[in-house]
Amino acid sequence: MPSVLIAGANRGIGLEFVRQYAAEGWTVHATARSDQACAALAALDPNVRSHRLEVTDPKSIAALARELGSGSLDVLIANAGISGDLARPPEQVDRRELLEVMGVNTFAPLHLAVALRPHLERGRLKIAAAMSSLMSSIARNTNGTQYVYRASKTALNAVWTSLAREWRPAGLICVLLRPGFVRTEMTDFKGELEAPESVRGMRKVVAGLTLADAGRLIGYDGLDLPW
Amino acid sequence: MVSPASRVLITGANRGLGLEFARQYAAEGWRVLATVRNLDGAGELRALRGKVDIAHLDAADDGSLEAFLRDVGSAPIDLLIANAGIGSGGEKPAAAVTREEWREAICVNTYAPFRLAAALRPNLERGRGKKFAAVSSLAASIAGYPIAGHYAYRASKAALNALWRSLAMEWRAAGLIGLLLRPGKVRTRMTGFTGDLEPVDSVRGMRAVIARAGFDDAGRFFGYDGREVPW
Q1: Within an 8 Å CB–CB cutoff, is residue B47 touching chain A?
Q2: Residues in contact with A41: Cβ distance below 8 Å, sequence separation at least 6, in sequence order
Q3: Beta carbons of B151 and A114 less than 8 Å apart
Q4: Per the domain annotation, does A225 fall within a domain?
Q5: Which of A32, A176, B113, B228 has the smallest number of CB atoms closer than 10 Å to its CB?
């Protein structure tokens, strides 16, 4: 069976990915920031191996790559993300918050993918997926708000499409996924769909990917989101 | 002919596109407030003809920004051109992107122009021109940029587009028009003077875009050639 690594797996969409892939018999590497969350993940299913990972810490990423050793990885799902203070008006956005949110949402996925590239190259499916958002779409932004979160996800789209172009000659498929407006802690459980439905949709998208899809931003519903 | 009293604030005006913006607006009779990070390097700016005031601003430095904003006070600004920025440092693979590199790109190219615009909203509202433009880049275009590298630079300009678009959408109701500009590949220091366009032509084109922009253009991204750039 294939293997998948899910970053930010202790709750919400990440946790649902763990459940569904494990239930299908995949080998699931699930990461979380605390020992407690790792223990809970490891107890979920015999197919789950948990790893401690702080995505903004290069040492932690390097340690994860070492733990995976010479093993292979079929799919990476860079799911860990933070929202920052979504309600903050523009004049109150400060540098610290912008750097923090972009550190987690934009550059950590890039650094994680780079560290796990050897494992993905040894895998059969060779898929690196990052979790984007409707909020990443500038074209769809007609009302402003959510400044920092939007910027971090738009920038993620920029770096991930670059990565898709750079890695395509090696046969690696980099794609962006849009989970939809899901009832999770990040949305204060106000979303329009439940995590199982969103994740089922995204897994279906992942299962159908070919190299021709590299660089696309695809929703849980199979539809592309305009940039 | 614009009103002689129109006032434009241009950041990063000591060389390249910023200097050319200052030159052209001053030549047309605008009152130019030109900011530079290093006052010692502003010789060409000082030599411009026209009404040009020069101020120190390192927008990536909170102290410098606060001091600048105090000096500007409540003066009306008709047009803001957030031009200051740093280049990409060359085409590098993803594996070469360092924390220092991306943090600097985000601070200078994303945060600084955004922070300045956010702080100057009252000044823009008091002005008659009511336009604020940021110099972006084709590298910000997720759809239109054909090169893989420049990760930190691309991210910084894409994030700038996202923030500027949000400002434009929120401030539209107050009569303000936010624009993103693509200068083209201009022969300046930033491109190692390898561009296919002279600053004078790029800036002339961008000034024409700014001059004719109306409310329907708020939050859009235009090239120096007047063509809309895909996100």
Answers
A1: no
A2: A9, A10, A15, A18, A30, A32, A48, A50
A3: no
A4: no
A5: B228
ipTM: 0.96
Dihedral of the CA atoms A85, A86, A90, A92 (nearest 10)?
-20
Between chains, do B106 and A139 touch, taking CB under 8 Å as contact? no
Q: Is the CB of B231 less than 8 angstroms away from the CB of A142?
A: no
Please check whether residue B10 is in contact with residue B83, taking contact to mean a CB–CB distance below 8 angstroms.
Answer: yes
Pairing of strands B51-56, B220-223: unpaired
Q: What is the pLDDT along chain A (227 residues), one digit of tens a residue?
A: 999 999 999 999 999 999 999 999 999 999 999 999 999 999 999 999 999 999 999 999 999 999 999 999 999 999 999 999 999 999 999 999 999 999 999 999 999 999 999 999 999 999 999 999 999 999 999 999 999 999 999 999 999 999 999 999 999 999 999 999 999 888 888 889 999 999 999 999 999 999 999 999 999 999 999 99
In a mutational test of the A interface, the residue from B100, B111, B154 whose CB has the highest number of chain A CBs within 10 Å is B111
Residue A227 domain flag: no
Residue A195: give the domain boundaries.
3-219
- Please report whether residue A157 resides in a domain: yes
CATH of residue A48's domain is 3.40.50.720
Domain count, chain A: 1
Residue A86 to residues A56, A149, A205, B110, B134, Cα–Cα distance (Å): 21, 7, 28, 18, 23
Are the beta carbons of B114 and A90 closer than 8 angstroms? yes
H/E element holding B177?
A: strand B177-182
Q: Does residue A70 lie within any of the structural domains?
A: yes
Distance between A90 CA and the closest CA of chain B, angstroms: 6
